[in-house]
Structure formats: C-alpha cells, structure tokens
Write a structure and sequence with these properties.
Blueprint lengths: L2 E6 L2 H18 L4 E4 L6 H12 L9 E4 L1 E3 L10 H8 L11 E2 L8 H14 L5 E4 L21 E4 L2 H8 L11 E4 L2 H5 L3 E6 L5 H9 L17 E6 L4 H5 L4
Parallel strand pairs: 1-10, 2-3, 2-6, 3-5, 6-9, 9-10
Antiparallel strand pairs: 4-8, 7-8
Helix pairs in contact: 1-2
The structure holds 2-phosphoglycolic acid (PGA).
C-alpha cells in the first residue's frame, strides 16, 4: 500500500492541491481517463481546473471521463442529476469532447442493463488512470454505502436514510429525492491506476480516520483503499483533525 496524505490549510488550499494533481495527470497523459466525482467537495478543484484551462495551461481535448455514479430516474437535464452537475461545474467550461464523458444512464430502468453497459464503457476506455473520490460521513465512496459485503462492479443501490437526508436539501420535497442510484463498484474504483481522495471539514474526520487506520471492512467502504497501491489523500485540517489528534500524521 502506498498512501500519501497531503494536508491542506483549508478548503481553498485543498481544492488547489487536488486540481494540481489532476492537472499533472492531464499534462503527463493528455489522453488520460479521469474518473470523476460529484458532491460539494470537488467543486473547488473543478473551478481550479477551469481556471487552468482558461489560462491556456490545460488541454482537455483528448481527455475521457467516467463518473462514479448517477441517480436512478433522473435525466441529464434535471438540475440535480450528476450529469448536469458535471456539465455545469466542469464540462461546459473546458474543451473536453462531451462524447467522451460518461455517466451511468439514470434513465435506464433496467438496472442490470444500465450497470453492465457502464462496466463495458469503463473497460472499453481502457480503465481509469486517475479516480477522484469524495468520502461520505459514513465512509461511502461513490454510492458504495456501508454494507455487509463489497460490491465489485457497477450496481444499483438503495441509498441509506442518512444519504437521502443529506441530499434532501437539494430537492423541493422529500418525494423527489431519489432513493436509488447506479454506482461504480469497488472493483471499478480499485482498478484505477491512481486514486485521489479529497475531504474537507470536521464531518469527515471520523470516516477518514477509520478508512485509513481502521480495519478493512465493507462497513467503512473507503477502508478498502488501504489495499490500493497508489492513493493520494488531500484533506484540510478539519478533516484530518482526528488523525492528528491520535498522532498519526
Ligand atoms: P460531499 O459528498 O462532497 O458533498 O461531502 C462526498 C461524498 O458523499 O462522496
């Protein structure tokens, strides 16, 4: 296992450091396959990448992207879909070929069909060079929620109550909050050559500590990253607070 932890001062600093790592990947391999993530944490990193593109420092024209997950039942036009998030936070502002940006098809009602199609896409693009991950307060990665087992490939998940509650703020009513999602599985994620996990705020401190120093268990899905040979964690002081308190970094 090689796990490197970079401490950032705050969210801005974390975003800049994470963007620099993604930028380095694109510069070193212009046709890189980026595994991308949604959520509030990566937004600042995407802003920095857009800035890098606007300055002429970054070229996305040969980049391919595969996103971690999508809500089942939401179309890409829905402003709460992850396709919409990616378009508005990154793809619309850089010269990426949208045909080369992939997100699970939330409108496919047949879960098996949606999931196997997505596994095939990941395989057909040659696997992921750099996978960006956020982490849930419960240790989830993508929508791999705490469970009794690790799920290998793309699968349909019933979102946990805490995730549904956390997402509720984005929807007008509880009824509209999606209860299921398609997500890459642990094997898809672990197949990436490099993993970049970003975390900000005290709410992530326990999940981060348990993921890095706790037992490897599907009850803390991110703990499986201990088995990957190239993981970089960029986290701010608050997210690292428990690790520092216990003298681990
Ligand atoms: P957040 O979500 O970035 O909105 O905190 C992270 C995640 O749940 O993966």
């Amino acid at each position: 296992m090689t796990m490197t932890i970079y401490e950032a001062r705050d969210y801005q600093d974390m975003s800049k450091k994470a963007a620099n790592i993604i930028a380095a990947q694109i510069i070193m391999k212009p046709d890189a396959v980026l595994g991308l993530a949604t959520g509030s944490t990566p937004v600042g990193a995407y802003e920095n990448l857009v800035e890098g593109y606007k300055k002429g420092d970054l070229d996305f024209s040969k980049v391919t992207s595969v996103n971690l997950d999508e809500y089942k039942g939401l179309s890409g036009d829905n402003d709460q879909s992850y396709r919409y998030f990616m378009n508005t936070n990154l793809f619309d502002h850089v010269n990426i070929n949208k045909e080369r940006t992939f997100v699970p098809n939330g409108l496919e009602e047949d879960s098996q069909k949606a999931c196997s199609a997505y596994n095939e896409i990941i395989e057909s693009v040659g696997g992921i060079d750099l996978q960006l991950l956020g982490i849930g307060g419960n240790g989830h990665i993508g929508f791999n929620e705490p469970d009794e087992v690790f799920h290998a490939g793309t699968h349909c998940v019933d979102l946990t109550e805490s995730t549904i509650q956390a997402n509720a703020r984005f929807f007008a009513s509880m009824d509209e909050v999606p209860k299921q999602a398609y997500t890459m599985g642990i094997q898809n994620i672990m197949g990436a050559k490099k993993i970049l996990l970003v975390a900000s705020g005290e709410g992530k401190a326990k999940a981060l500590y348990d993921s890095i120093y706790g037992p490897i268990t599907p009850k803390v899905p991110a703990s499986v990253l201990q088995l990957h040979n190239d993981v970089v964690i960029v986290a701010d002081e608050a997210a690292l607070s428990l690790i520092k308190e216990k003298g681990e970094c």
